[in-house]
Design goal:
The protein has 10 helices and 12 strands. By secondary structure, it is an alpha/beta fold. Strands 6-5-4-7-8-11 form a 6-stranded mixed sheet, with helices on both faces. The chain has a 4-stranded antiparallel sheet with strand order 1-2-3-12. The longest helix has 21 residues. The radius of gyration is 38 Å and the shape is elongated.
Length: 337
């Protein structure tokens, strides 16, 4: 039986004894005159309206006895705190996110730009994968590992913070898709996870790097790594960087959106993954949601319960109330016959 929040009572039937409390009060009410001496006076005029401090405190005797009974009955019912422990056994999936950091990711067909939206949606995806090891790689004209495989997703989310984290312009510009994929494969090849996945996001055409995308895909297949590819960007033209000043700032203008969808489809097909095209942030959210459903982590949860005895405070309170009652009754509020 659960009462008072997380307390569990082993002997809840003993709460029926609480019915004795009002019976005790009724009995005391009718017997109250036998507890106090009677003085016969010819007239009450001289003491009319007078009442001593002892007289005012007489109500404490039955009150303390009632409180003592209530506390002791609760103690007899054996309250226990229920301590739950969850033992989680998860067959996690190792995932490496590969993010394009070429200057075209600053195109403003997504608000405020493609990179901002891509980091936000990827961060939401990571938050939903509690039991998976996730890593992060980035590429432009070259590639590097930003975060190795980890279950400490707080670190990963710092890099995927839309306001900070990954930024365009920190590497030589270009789109080395093969290098990005090869970097992710290098992180996953030694993994013993049941499932190994790469999610590669780009908005361009491979034009840099010394590893060809198809070669990287073959290596991924060799290590049983599944690759999901995402082409991000609107169709037609977008307001995007067209050049860069000597101070590092980008100059924007209308530019044609070019995504090598044929190559991305081949990579996905070669590795058993799937290709997606996202032309809006909402569409990108749906893409990650679909991948999340396709790559489910098997979780086995065992709930263990432990109990901690909590009757001691109630028993102590009952004894204290009894002691206070005895002190008042036989010392301070003692009635002299």
């Amino acid at each position: 039986m659960n009462l008072f929040g997380q307390l569990h009572f082993v002997n809840p039937e003993l709460f029926l004894l609480l019915l004795l409390v009002p019976l005790l009060y009724v009995w005391y009410y009718y017997k109250r005159h036998s507890y106090f001496p009677k003085i016969k006076l010819p007239s009450f005029e001289s003491i009319a309206g007078m009442q001593s401090i002892r007289g005012r405190l007489r109500f404490l005797i039955p009150l303390l006895r009632a409180l003592s009974m209530i506390a002791l009955i609760i103690a007899l019912a054996r309250p226990q705190a229920v301590l739950k422990e969850e033992e989680i056994k998860a067959d996690g999936i190792d995932i490496v996110l590969v993010m394009d950091l070429s200057s075209s990711m600053l195109a403003q067909d997504f608000k405020p730009d493609r990179l901002w939206a891509s980091k936000k949606v990827a961060g939401d995806f990571v938050k939903g994968r509690k039991f998976d090891r996730i890593g992060l790689a980035a590429f432009a004209g070259e590639a590097y590992t930003q975060c190795p495989l980890t279950t400490d997703h707080r670190v990963l989310l710092e890099f995927l913070n839309p306001q900070a984290g990954l930024q365009c312009g920190i590497m030589q510009d270009g789109t080395a898709i093969g290098m990005g994929l090869a970097t992710a494969v290098n992180r996953l090849k030694e993994s013993e996870a049941k499932s190994k996945v790469v999610i590669l996001l780009t908005d361009g055409v491979n034009n840099a790097g010394y590893v060809k995308p198809n070669t990287a895909a073959e290596i991924a297949k060799e290590f049983n790594i599944k690759v999901y590819t995402i082409g991000v960007g609107t169709t037609g033209e977008a307001y995007a960087p067209v050049s860069r000043r000597s101070d590092g700032r980008f100059l924007f203008g209308m530019s044609r959106v070019q995504i090598d969808e044929k190559l991305l489809r081949e990579i996905a097909r070669e590795t058993g993954g799937k290709y997606y095209r996202a032309t809006t942030e909402q569409a990108l959210q749906q893409v990650y949601a679909q991948i999340d459903k396709l790559e489910k982590t098997e979780i086995e949860v065992s709930i263990l319960k432990r109990y901690q005895e909590k009757f001691h405070p109630f028993a102590l309170a009952g004894i204290i109330f009894l002691l206070i009652e005895a002190l008042l009754k036989y010392l301070f509020l003692r009635a002299i016959p």
